[in-house]
Design goal:
alpha+beta, two-stranded antiparallel sheet, globular
Length: 273
């Protein structure tokens, strides 16, 4: 083996080739270098849990996102609670009807009125004559308690005031602008429901007499005549029978009539304007 190695050296020296002093430089195995550069590092395996808004890497394989929560079911009209109208108190209605008859009223109980937004009357009454000899026009729909307040006011306030008018004068009729109407207060587009919407109110427009011309409700402050005196008398006495009395001077909505109702308020408060 040594002879084989020396022979090439002697040949090289005889040919004048200079040999390196340090001997051959070792070379790295090119196969090892190629293998290190071309082999990729293993990638981390994706975590099985998916955070909100993140999608896992697919690597060519389809994966599905977490299922979204189902929205809450919307309630339909049939699911909403309904408000049941209370049944009429027949004992109280019988007493009310008896009082109306004592005052000479002529009336008819009608079928219940039920409208939207809570409007309606469980036991409406049509009053044709509010007291003996005094008609109520036009046709009306009132609760019995409202009709009784109107009858008592007519009997104890309006008729005596008419008797005090000059000459032989007798009250024969009361005309109204409205009784039951399903609407908001003062016919406004927003706000609270009117007492008219449950049969608690009446708007008095004018009075008819035997022995003189009718007297209508109008702004009369400062007129100084008998018509103003009559209007003041009946308006002041109305608050003894109704819990709300509004008329000319209260606001622009009541300049041409008297609004009378029996609304219940805390502490029995009465609004007389």
């Amino acid at each position: 083996m040594r002879r084989l190695l020396v022979l090439p050296v002697l040949i090289a020296v005889s040919m004048g080739v200079e040999l390196p002093q340090d001997g051959p430089v070792p070379q790295e195995n090119p196969r090892l270098e190629t293998a290190q550069d071309s082999t990729p590092l293993p990638e981390p395996r994706p975590d099985n849990t998916t955070r909100t808004g993140d999608m896992p890497a697919t690597h060519g394989t389809a994966t599905s996102a977490m299922p979204e929560p189902k929205p809450a079911d919307k309630k339909t009209a049939s699911d909403l609670p309904t408000i049941s109208r209370p049944k009429p108190d027949e004992v109280a209605l019988a007493r009310c009807e008896a009082e109306l008859r004592k005052l000479g009223a002529v009336f008819t109980r009608e079928d219940p009125v039920e409208d939207e937004n809570g409007c309606g009357i469980e036991a409406p009454y049509r009053i044709d004559r509010i007291t003996s000899g005094v008609a109520l026009s036009p046709a009306s729909q009132l609760r019995c308690a409202t009709a009784l307040a109107l009858a008592r006011w007519t009997d104890t306030v309006v008729i005596p005031a008419a008797v005090a008018l000059p000459g032989k004068v007798r009250l024969t009729g009361i005309n109204h602008g409205s009784t039951y109407v399903c609407r908001l207060r003062n016919n406004l587009p927003t706000g609270k429901m009117s007492e008219h919407s449950i049969g608690n109110a009446i708007d008095i427009a004018d009075f008819e007499f035997e022995g003189r011309q009718p007297i209508g409700i109008s702004p009369r402050q400062g007129d100084g005549d008998i018509e103003e005196a009559f209007q003041r008398a009946i308006r002041g006495g109305a608050c003894l029978h109704f819990t709300t009395v509004l008329g000319p001077g209260s606001d622009t909505s009541h300049a041409s009539h008297l609004h009378l109702d029996i609304a219940k308020r805390r502490g029995g408060y009465r609004l007389c304007q």
